[in-house]
Amino acid sequence: MTESKRKNSISRRSFIALAGGAAGAAAVASLGLHLDWETNNPKVDIDALGLDTFKTEVLVIGSGMAGLFAAVKAHDAGAKVLMVSKGRLGSSGLTPFAKGIFAYDPAKETLSIDEFVAAVSRSALGTNNPVYTRQMAEHSLARVNELKEWGFFDSTLYNKSFSKPIEERNIPIQERVTITHLVKENNKLVGAAGFSIDKEKVIIYEAKSIILCTGSGGFKPNGFPICDLTHDGTVMAYNIGAKVTGKEWNDGHPGKAKNAAACYDGWGDMFEQKPGTTGIEVHHDLGVDMNYVAYTNGSPLKMGPPGSGEKTEVSGGPFVPEEFSRQNSKPPDNGDRKPPKGGHGDGAPPGMGGSIVGGSSAGMAIHKSEGLVPINDQCESNIPGLYAAGDALGSYMSGGIYTQIGSSLSGSAVQGGVAGEAAANYCKNVEISHISTSKIEEIQEEILAPLKREAGYSPAWVTQTLQGIVIPNFVLYIKKENMLKAALAYVEELRDHHMPMLRAANMHELRLAHETANMIVSAEMKLKASLMRKESRCSHYRLDYPEMDPENWEAWINIFKGDDGTMQFEKQPFNSWSA
Amino acid sequence: MSIVSINGCIGCEECIKSCPTDVIRLNRDTKKAEILYPEDCQICHLCRMYCPVDAITISPEKSIPVIVSWG
After folding, report:
1. Inter-chain contacts counted by CB atoms under 8 A, chains A and B
2. Which of A48, A348, A378, B61 has the greatest count of CB atoms below 10 A from its CB?
3. Complex ipTM, two decimals?
4. CATH topology assigned to domain B3-58
């Protein structure tokens, strides 16, 4: 069924005529008014939905910076690669908005890599995995040079430069396909499954190895361009037994009070810039300091450039190591650096003069701190054949705080390359497995369930309700036991009663339904991990446990699904690998 | 109200492909892009930047859906 046919339903057509065309419809839609809220009226012929199956050796899920290098390096290491993207190559997730990429150039830097890793580890208060910090620095220049060859630094938009190496290698790519399931049979990873929002088809992928380059996620917040990222990779992997981590950390980017939902406007002209490289500059930034000030003194906060002296003095709050305190450092000179202030991990979002509001990136942790738990430096998860790279891997490259401008994009490139090569090598020793018909039928049923429901809750309403529960400052950022428990009770209600009744009338809503379910699972992880970590460190702040607890908490929190299906938690000591 | 209008569309589908949140779709009859799900627009301007003929107008304003008890 086509989009135009879908729009021709009588109620909608007559309504649009009344409302004065598309602009009118847009206005009403933005008010949350829907004409068919009582029952689900699928505009998709469910019985006619097709099923496609593809086979590959390495399946790369995601097409941002990590996905690009995962696909290229897996191909170059001899594997047959297929890339699948929920959006478009270089134009979805966070990659299109990241304008600074760190390159460690030994000819230019005064710090050695050893000194750089040591500085990051001091800023991160032990929360980083120095193996991944070092790997990023060591490989960064090589990846940046490849990007240069492909024309990455010549354009504001990344699709063309990303397409160059993919097309040169004839790597097939399927875009606008939402992957919902990783598939394990007989205790072996055998593939993945999802659906195309354009072709109205369920798609099954049989693969020897899978690399999740699915990015991080949030609660579809206002003011940060991650409304298409809902921790899909993390939740899919968790569902088949992977360990995930990093859920207690928080990215603390604020938004502008005026037009808080406008990502583009909130970030000044950054989205219009061509990318540039950054060098060493170690910080301890963009945790929840501002959230603490707002909690203590009330909002709105005013903010100028870093070091401008407009920071309100408050007692207590998140600990910042003396060496990295902004109060003790001169304002950074952004005049000769590309990109200007505001790249991922910088101290001051651009265009943030004037009143600011909190939670623009609500639901997202510090880049590279959340995602699948690696069992080694090869981006490998605890499930054989399953790898993750970039924001989908809980590599703790910079730990639970931002330590370095531009390293997030760099880390995605580096880890993508490492994972690609590792996955290709893994494939050499395994046979491809066939996914059984019964398994396909079971998954198909789960994927299409929201379309088949005669009534239920709209993903938009469930998402809005979830946002109201988890985004408030006193739940997400400035944490204490009673509020975390209260929020958890609400989230468990959504999980148990509303998640199973999400409805969808078309493929757009089907994607929203699956994203909403993933956000609910992620919310449960965040609240429970936050309850467990009874201390404050980096971007995790507990009002009732405001100090660091080196005796009990020199450890990361891993989350996995127990045999009984419940969410389980374990500590993994810093500087160790998961067993 | 986020993405406002598309005027002068040449039907190249760049905006449709580049929208991370599937706000825009092709009208199969007119062969032009149309705004179908504006409530999901994150105001990132990728569609406008990818549009080769500068056809897309975006406003920084966005209304929050009304709060209801079920929906």
Report:
1. 134
2. A348
3. 0.98
4. Alpha-Beta Plaits (3.30.70)
